[in-house]
Amino acid sequence: MKITVAFAGLLATSLAAPSTGPVLVSRSAGINYVQNYNGNLGDFTYDESAGTYSMYWEDGVSSDFVVGLGWTTGSSNSITYSADYSAAGSGSYLSVYGWVNSPQAEYYIVEDYGDYNPCSSSSATSLGTVSSDGGTYQVCTDTQTNQPSITGTSTFTQFFSVRESTRTSGTVTVANHFSFWAEHGFGNSDFNYQVVAVEAWNNYL
């Protein structure tokens, strides 16, 4: 699969069964954080100063990874990106991804994905929809019990906004999602890291 993600000056690429090309993302603050959860499953390389990363992995790996570039402290600032991402038939997301410290929460603004929509999960709770950036996003939450987190094993809420008409370029007005989630328990402050990420998991790899 090949995936490329970039922020005005940030380009990320990943390779495996499905395929993707470049992604360009921009924000006024410079890139200062590298996300590499299980990136050792493949060949994860990056140039932080150039805002580029790439990932190549083999099919059949029964695990998951999350790689990306972004910021040590997230914010509601808008992010503009351009990507070549094609994940049909895979378990994968292209998203703005991050964490809030308190109350602890993991969040995804999913711009494109393979064949799994997290808001279609039987365990997800629908919160309705948000209109933003020329599209409609399904919004839902899920609870992870005793799962890995930024503080070790813990129980936390996941917040998802999943774009109905998927895309691989555009501007994500992050504040629109944070404001909507805040009506449903999202802290909307005390941010941990935030990245434009590629995630893939389980036997899809």
TrEMBL record:
> GO molecular function, one example?
endo-1,4-beta-xylanase activity
| Keyword Hydrolase tagged | yes
Q: Please tell me whether the keyword tRNA-binding is annotated for this protein.
A: no
- Signal peptide bounds: 1-16
Please report the stretch or stretches of sequence annotated as the GH11 domain.
Answer: 19-205
Q: Which GO terms describe its biological process?
A: xylan catabolic process
Reading the lineage from the top rank, the first entry is Eukaryota
Q: What is its EC number?
A: 3.2.1.8
Which pathway is it part of? Glycan degradation; xylan degradation
Q: Which Pfam families match?
A: Glyco_hydro_11 (PF00457)
The UniProt keywords, alphabetically, are: Carbohydrate metabolism, Glycosidase, Hydrolase, Polysaccharide degradation, Signal, Xylan degradation
Swiss-Prot/TrEMBL catalytic activity: Endohydrolysis of (1->4)-beta-D-xylosidic linkages in xylans
Catalytic residues of the enzyme: 106 (nucleophile), 199 (proton donor)
Cite the PANTHER family for this sequence.
Answer: ENDO-1,4-BETA-XYLANASE A-RELATED
Q: Which family does it belong to?
A: Belongs to the glycosyl hydrolase 11 (cellulase G) family.
Q: What is this protein called?
A: Endo-1,4-beta-xylanase
* Organism whose genome encodes this protein: Penicillium cataractarum
Lineage, opening ranks:
Eukaryota, Fungi, Dikarya, Ascomycota, Pezizomycotina
